[in-house]
Amino acid sequence: DAMVIQNPRYQVTQFGKPVTLSCSQTLNHNVMYWYQQKSSQAPKLLFHYYDKDFNNEADTPDNFQSRRPNTSFCFLDIRSPGLGDAAMYLCATSSISGSGNEQFFGPGTRLTVL
Amino acid sequence: AQSVAQPEDQVKVAEGNPLTVKCTYSVSGNPYLFWYVQYPNRGLQFLLKYITGDNLVKGSYGFEAEFNKSQTSFHLKKPSALVSDSALYFCAVRDYGQNFVFGPGTRLSVLP
């Protein structure tokens, strides 16, 4: 089945130790998103790629970076995680072929910062 | 700017009773509206959407939503709630680009 996969599902890191979260998709969608979600709040968009075009939200901290080496993969790099970065990180994809297309979400990666 | 409101943080209903989760929106132009559900420690799962056409939209798991342009609402409904419907529900609107704006979420509890 076509899907969005996130690895790992659970990630534990130490304060200040860089961490990378990964997302892959088999849907061949041209848009990929990274969201941060804290304690049952609405997902907060960090950035998205439209094909290779990177779009950063104005309030996304510089500590967060992203890479999209090809259509299928997208990575979230947190350069120096702080305690406040502990959250669920959600990857999503969407096709831009029609504006009415919904997003497909991965299962998320729960990040713990010690 | 586009925005979505979900006026109820929490909704509780008894199993077998009808449920409604409310959503209102503010957009310029025609809205593309969505409902998603999230179970604990999972990603969001698409339920249904309104793009154009009939105001009553049917989706997954027996859910439906009614688009009301004059009231700028898109309430989620189900005729008979199940305990397994207990989850976090998000309403969202898509702009003409690639971005989705999510409401704050409503926690639905269906009591046995």
Overview of the molecule:
The complex is a heterodimer of chains A (114) and B (112). Chain A is mostly beta strands and 114 residues long. Chain A contains no helices and 11 strands. In chain A, the strands form 2 sheets. In chain A, strands 2, 4, 5, 6, 9, 10 and 11 form a 7-stranded mixed sheet that branches. A 4-stranded antiparallel sheet of chain A has the order 1-3-8-7, with no helix packed on it. Chain A is globular and about 40 Å long. The termini of chain A are far apart. With 112 residues, chain B is an all-beta fold. Chain B is 0% helix and 53% strand. Chain B is built from no helices and 12 strands. Chain B has strands spanning 3-5, 10-14, 19-21, 24-26, 32-38, 44-50, 56-58, 64-68, 73-78, 87-94, 100-102, 106-111. In chain B, the strands form 3 sheets. In chain B, strands 2, 5, 6, 10, 11 and 12 form a 6-stranded mixed sheet that branches. Chain B has a 4-stranded antiparallel sheet with strand order 3-9-8-7, with no helix packed on it. Chain B has a two-stranded antiparallel sheet with strand order 1-4. Chain B is globular and about 40 Å long. Chain B starts with a strand and ends with a strand. The model of chain B has no long low-confidence stretch (mean pLDDT 93). Chain A binds chain B through residues 4, 6, 31, 33, 40-43, 45, 48, 50, 55, 88, 90, 92, 94, 96, 99-100, 102-108, 110, and chain B through 32, 34, 36, 41-46, 49, 51-52, 88, 90, 94, 96, 98-100, 102-105, 107.
Quick gist of this model?
The complex is a heterodimer of chains A (114) and B (112). Chain A has 114 residues and is mostly beta strands. Chain A has strands at 4-7, 10-13, 19-25, 31-37, 44-50, 53-56, 64-67, 73-78, 87-94, 104-105, 109-113.
